[in-house]
Amino acid sequence: MKLLRFTTCGSVDDGKSTLIGRLLYDAKSIFEDQLEAIERSSERRGDERVNLALLTDGLRAEREQGITIDVAYRYFATPRRKFIIADTPGHVQYTRNMVTGASSAETALILIDARHGVVEQTCRHAFISSLLGIRHLVVCVNKMDLVDWSEQRYLQITSDFLAFVSRLDVAALTTIPMSALEGDNVVTRSEHMPWYDGPSLLYHLEHLHVGGANNHVDARFPVQWVVRPQSESHPDFRGYAGQVAGGVFKPGDEVLVLPSGFHSRIDKIYVGNREVDEAFPPQSVCLTLTDDVDVSRGDMIVKAGSPPTSSQELDVMLCWFSDRKKLQPGSKYLLRHTTQEVKAVVQEVQFKVDVNTLHRIADDPIVAMNDIARVKLRTAKPLHFDRYARNRVTGSLVLVDPFTNDTVAAAMIR
């Protein structure tokens, strides 16, 4: 059964949590004790009906303020498909959490309040989804019940969004008018909108074809841990543990260890205590080599025929998270890439992006919270990476403030 990971995006109070709650409720994917709990919570809050948004808004602060703050993951299945949902916050203050939730998604649901139309957060989240390699967008024009199920309003919002998204790298776009609160076009077709002849949201998600996000061509294995039990039963065992980031590894494959440049061959591959014939993403495995070469955490084992780019110069698109500090040329950070951590300095801010128009802002080198910018970085030692478009794992990184240990930016290598 094919698994689909999707995330919800959009501005605050566009109905993302309510949509997920309605999807789970109508798909019969809520346990009785969960339903009873949210019924009691809704009654205490004085809500007129069961507040399905409480299924994903689990933090006390979220329930008190009526907004989503942290990313909430929910799992459910239908006879046709399994799903993992990342319900992300819409508030501009928590854009960093939206980036986290969307980073592993294959599809993004962009919610738009039918009363307000396309707003800045709608554009920002669509742009970030595109940067993160999400090629399939589903535009959910929500709260149609509050605009009298107007086809004209739906068409106007669709036209506005298409004008914006036409400049992004999006492979497929589907628009669905709905009311998450009432359940129209979420799991079943709506009787209030006979002018809409498309599928319901669940039907679309069940039948959506999405290619795998993993790169099975270029073999990449960032070493996370060197396994040396030195026990009586395994006195000479030396293995290398980590998660396969790309390609397929098999015993006998000739490999190259970076940055040392040593060549060897794979001897055995273990998943737990079990020996296997191959390893592929996203498996966590332990490799042993035929030669006793120097390999440590942060090194990368690759196939000799398709090595990654190795350089100290990085050209990235980054999303800035910090509200306390701003990025500018000369700023120094810790850079975390796969299993490696190195010092890095900002060489140049090439431009920022106006999320409403997608125009480049080239004369402002100061990057503030929620800004998206193209930046050149230089690291203290070479990194081994691929373009983000080719490999999400080896093409992504985060910047960390060395003094506070706060994650201040997420970046995609161009």
Structure, explained:
This protein is of the alpha+beta class and 414 residues long. The protein has 3 domains: 3-207, Rossmann fold (3-Layer(aba) Sandwich), CATH 3.40.50.300; 220-303, Translation factors (Elongation Factor Tu (Ef-tu), domain 3); 309-413, Elongation Factor Tu (Ef-tu), domain 3 (Beta Barrel), CATH 2.40.30.10. It is 18% helix and 34% strand. It contains 7 helices and 21 strands. The strands form 3 sheets. Strands 7, 8, 9, 10, 11, 12, 13 and 14 form an 8-stranded antiparallel sheet that branches. A 6-stranded mixed sheet has the order 2-3-1-4-5-6, sandwiched between helices. It has a 6-stranded antiparallel β-barrel with strand order 15-19-17-16-20-21. The longest helix is centred in the middle third of the chain and has 15 residues, at 151-165. The two termini are 34 Å apart.
Can you describe this structure in just a few lines?
Helices cover 18% and strands 34% of the residues. By secondary structure, it is of the alpha+beta class.
